[in-house]
Amino acid sequence: MPAKKGVIFVLHGRQDHIVKTNIAAIEQAARAVSVPFAIGFLEGKHQTLEDSIAKLVAKGCQEFIFLPVLLFAATHVKVELPMRAGAVLPKEAIATYLEPLGTTHAVLRFLAEQLAAQPKLLPQSVLLIAHGTPHFLEPYAQLAEIAQKLTLISGRKVYPANYHGEHLYTTVLNQIPTPLIVQRLFLTDGFLPTKIKQDIVTKRGTKDTILPTLADSPAVVAAILERLADSNVTHHA
Length: 237
Hints:
By secondary structure, the chain is an alpha/beta fold. 41% of the residues lie in helices and 19% in strands.
């Protein structure tokens, strides 16, 4: 008899500082999930990752599928998640760690559609900004690949850049004085994307076109379901 599966949606934020847009996307995607699921936070003391594992163990799950509802894999995904999960999972449990959402077709499609909706009167270049990390090379390599694909799709030059670590967005802003289309690649409109927008406006005025983040976009739901598609845990799998 195959092991009973369960899905754990992993979020960075604390339960007492819920990012409502991400919770809403998870709840919508979870309607298609045909196995037990839980949401586990990597921060705080309530509804923690450990709590979510215990919840699914109590429901008889033996195979655990972890989906980080984040865009790119850095320390939280590569180190903290498997370490903490491994410490509390039953010895006989099977654990599968899915990739975050940044490299899904759904996210690329969202970005391409955002650019396609911009006027072609001025062929502005695009500044694609992600969170970034100084600890791993992979997130920026993935961001650069996304930028390359968007360049081909949109016909505009797309520059990848980070808020944190190397390849900073401020460097690109200093190098390109002409108006840019700015795409902040974030799942929410929280503190950091707001700070980036305010920083750009302060330094450059209103000459740049700053596009919306992924917050409240159906693309997030589509990206979650895309990641789960190969795990045989949805009604449409």
